[in-house]
Amino acid sequence: MIWITSEVDGEIYREPFSKGILSRSLNIADLGSQRAHEIASDIESELIDENITEIASYDLANVILKHLERVDPGSAKKYKNWRSLRNSKKPLIILIGGASGVGTSSMAFELANRLRLKNLISTDMIREVMRKIVSKDLSPVIHKSSFDAYESIRTPSIRIDRVIEGFISHVDVVNVGIEAIIERSVKEGISTIIEGVHVVPGFIRKDLMDNNNIIIFTLTVGDEESHKQRFYSRCRQPWVKRSLERYMDNFDTIRKTQTFLMEQAKIHDSRIIDNVDINQTIDIMVSDILEKFGGEDNDE
Question: How far is CA 137 from CA 131, 140, 157, in A?
């Protein structure tokens, strides 16, 4: 048995070495499940051959890094950046936005698993909380969906498309909650993923975006038929309450909100990802995160 020791609040605790846990952590280096398991097995054999029965987690990380540098320098660099990210005292705030049906929830869940982050918040949940606090008479917009919020605009503007005006009004209300969560995450030092249609580049306060470890992604689905198929797949799930007919009736307005989101992302130089393939999207996001926040400069 090989024991891994770590220090928490001045106390030393031990846990058994696990090839499964190690192979999952190696996935961050883009090795693939089978290759990651093979390397985890090789590292276990290396420790056994050296008669190591107890090793500090920091020393184990160095053993892993040296092994990767021998067998795959590219993956070693990604693993080193990930270690820097994990050891940073600054929290990582990841924002994932996109129009309804493009897969922000699914991608946020997969990314949380890849980065081993525990705090995942949906802007739909923020909206639901705000609906309980703010009455329909006071803010009718928040009691609609993002794509049909324009129906609640009492005095439509003549200078802006009414669908986009409704969407902006809807986002503005929910954005109060998004900013509060970001502020709390920064204050408490808690890394967090926030996802949903209400994550729009340019809407979150500039001081928050400038001064903290925040990265924002905008997901899209370029092909209209592929976008429709996402709703077919979603509505097959037994827990989905909304009907497919409602999404299809509002599909044109949903596409219009996607165009607005893309325009905002271009204006504010945010990453836009056409979410065609799940694995490719996750790889792009992970690479961007490691490139921006990994490395020795982020250790302090």
Answer: 11, 6, 20
Q: Are 174 and 142 in contact (CB under 8 A)?
A: yes
Residue 7 structure tokens: 């220090």
119, 185 in Cβ contact below 8 A?
A: yes
Residue found under tokens 């209400």: 198
Can you read off the two tokens belonging to residue 162?
């009414």
CA distance linking residue 37 with residue 77, whole number of Å? 19
Measured in degrees and rounded to the nearest 5, phi and psi for residue 106 equal: -65, -45
Label each residue of 11-65 as H, E or C.
EEEEEECCHHHHHHHHHHHCCCHHHHHHHHHHHHHHHHHCCCCEEEHHHHHHHHH
pLDDT higher for 295 or 97? 97
Q: Give residue-wise pLDDT tens across range 150-185.
A: 898 877 776 789 999 999 999 999 999 999 999 999
Count of C-beta atoms within a 10 Å radius of residue 21: 14
Cα atoms found within 13 Å of the Cα of residue 17, Cβ hemisphere only = 23
Radius of gyration, alpha carbons of the chain: 22
Which pairing describes strands 54-56 and 11-16: parallel, antiparallel, or unpaired?
A: unpaired
Smallest Cα–Cα separation from 27: which of 298, 299, 282, 291? 282
The tokens for 227 are 């976008």
CA distance 107 to 109: 5
What totals of helices (H) and strands (E) does the chain contain, helices first? 12, 8
Rounded CA-CA distance 128/153 in Å is 19
Expressed in angstroms, the distance from the first to the final Cα of the chain is: 34
